[in-house]
Amino acid sequence: MSEFKRLHVSALMEANWEAPDWQQLETTKVGEWLLERHSMTERLKACCETLTVEVIGLHDVDKTSLSDSERALLGDGACLVREVVLSGDDCPWLCARTLVPMSTLTEQEKDIADLGAVPLGQRVFNQANARRDAIEIASLVVDGQELLARRSRLWVNDKPMLVSELFLPHAPIYQEEG
Q1: What's its EC (predicted)?
Q2: Could you give the C-alpha distances from 136 to 36, 69, 80, 111, in angstroms and in order?
């Protein structure tokens, strides 16, 4: 998995994030995925029998490791980094990298550091006050293939997290409408 992680997580970290053209994307199938404001976990689950999560990285980073845009969205503090691959029916669909400020991992949200194979979206969107904002998109070339990605900030109990998601080649976002 290390080569996979090196390619895909690195691509997410180097992405040139841009504000989406909402008007153009809202009426497209791809746009429905990229602009999803609720749980990506639930959206993926609807496309398969079994959705699984594999944790490929879990570590802390200090604030100097964050980019300017990450600090602008999260604040200027250390974060927990959680890197996972979500697979639908054993086919990798999504590589995600989540930055969780240490200040978010308090009180009710302490458990986020220990989710393991539980999808983050399943945990976050079980809260009535969960929301998503600051959606940005990118087009990345990974191993010669152009792939779509998005980055968004999740809020739970008014505490932020930043999720970057890379849609892998067999993800439902690329499937023909039928």
Answers
A1: 4.1.3.40
A2: 11, 11, 21, 27
- Domains of the chain by range and CATH? 2-170 (3.40.1410.10)
**Which residues are known binding-site members for substrate?**
40, 82, 120, 165
pLDDT digits (tens, 9 = 90+) for 5-40: 889 999 999 999 999 999 999 999 999 999 999 999
Using a cut of 0.90, tell me whether the model's pTM lies above it.
Answer: yes
Partnered with residue 154 across adjacent β-strands are 132, 161
25 phi and psi angles, rounded to 5 deg: -80, -30
Q: Write the CA distances from 35 to 41, 85, 103, 106, 168, integer angstroms.
A: 14, 20, 27, 29, 17
Per the CB < 8 A criterion, the answer to whether 11 and 142 are in contact is yes
Structure tokens at 29: 């199938």
List binding-site positions.
40, 82, 120, 165
